[in-house]
Write the structure tokens for this entry.
Amino acid sequence: MLANKGRLASGNFMLLILVSVTVFVVPVFPIAYHKLLFNLLYTAIFFIAVFSLQKHRKMMLGLAVAATVAEWLSASIQMTALNTASRLLNILFFMVVVFFLIVQITLTQKVTARVIMEAINGYLLLGMVFALAVAVIMNFRPEAYNFPTPASRLDQSIYYFSDYLYYAFATFATVGYGDIVPLAPYAKSLAILTGVTGQIYVAVIIAMLVGKFAAASAVSDDST
């Protein structure tokens, strides 16, 4: 039991580092390095995420292998269908991971550092899900958003993924700078979904953590 908890804590810590680097650090590097860095980090995230989950690890390992193969194939073979399939598989993988992380948080009785890391990982991965959704839209309709440097070819789309991350997280956190806005109706609908999901996630997870912390404190006070 202790070994399993230690593995979960280590897995979530490594996942937090990898996702944080992907979201916050990679955009700082010169754009020429973005394609390779994103591919490497996504591969690492796929497999590290498996160790951050308490259950269904075999299923998630198979999904991680499939996502990795699709990621590197789409990077090597420039095909719109393959690129879209890879992005959709990434979205599926991250959404399943977020779901299982939320389940783990729900089933945990005591708020620990691991539980807090699970909550943060879920938030960041959800933001990446919406960035990937924007990337899928941009594959087919570059005019759907007013990005200042839209990808003119499919093989350039990965280089501008940091722009998609920026827009997705600004919308997810409901910051709304207004420098990048959705123009197409489906892009506007995605923006609404992104903002509402971010607010619901924060409200529900924080309420859950506060409730668990208060319950644990009440039990501790009663025992003394």
Observations:
- DSSP finds seven helices and no strands in the chain.
- The CA atoms of residues 142 and 150 lie 6 Å apart.
- The first helix runs from residue 2 to 25.
